Amino acid sequence: MQDRDLFKGKREDNDEWTIGILTQDTGGSYFIITQMFDEEVTWCGDCGMPCFEYHKVDPATVGRCAGLTDKNGKLIFEGDVLQFNDMVEVVEEEYEFVEGFDFINTATVCWRKGRFELVDFSNDNSRVLGEMDVVGHDEFIFTFSLSEVVGNIHDKK
Predict the structure, then answer these.
(1) Predicted TM-score of the model (pTM)
(2) Do the beta carbons of residue 131 and residue 140 sit within 8 Å?
(3) I want to staple 122 with a disulfide (CB 3.0 to 4.6 A). Which of 102, 106, 126, 148 is the partner?
């Protein structure tokens, strides 16, 4: 199993985040399986089958893994809020030169147009906005590894 096959959601019983494989029962409820075959498996004494650990999750909080990690090695999921240093070029009309400056920006990870993107920037004067549409998408994706996950849109503020 690869990281991009993982999902994250908030458990309905205790409002904590859980990560694993997403599944849905016939009643329409969503569950995340957190114990798989490559881990230490608990075997059911009644049927002899592996007993998986799973948790019912709020479907509104479910997000897929981007298959990428932030600068601290933490997996990045849809709905996560990333914080990053943003280099912006500003044209000073009076002096007619381009000057770079740093500032801290935040944005939310979302799945859109068949790829992961950032939305809801705290400062919309972001160089990342332009890079999301760059052919190859390489510069934009590089932003994820330089960022830090600082929250999620479903966390209470």
Answers:
(1) 0.80
(2) yes
(3) 106
Owner of token pair 């409002």: 15
d(CA 96, CA 18): 52
Q: Which token pair is 101?
A: 């400056």
From CA 30, how far away is CA 11, in angstroms rounded?
10
Distance of CA 86 to the CA centre of its chain: 19
H or E element, residue 146? helix 138-146
Dihedrals φ, ψ of 150, to 5°?
-115, 5
Are the C-beta atoms of residues 6 and 54 closer than 8 Å to each other? no
Q: What is the C-alpha separation between 10 and 56, in angstroms, rounded? A: 8
Contact status, residue 76 vs residue 69, Cβ threshold 8 Å: yes
CA dihedral 90→92→96→99, nearest 10 degrees, is -40
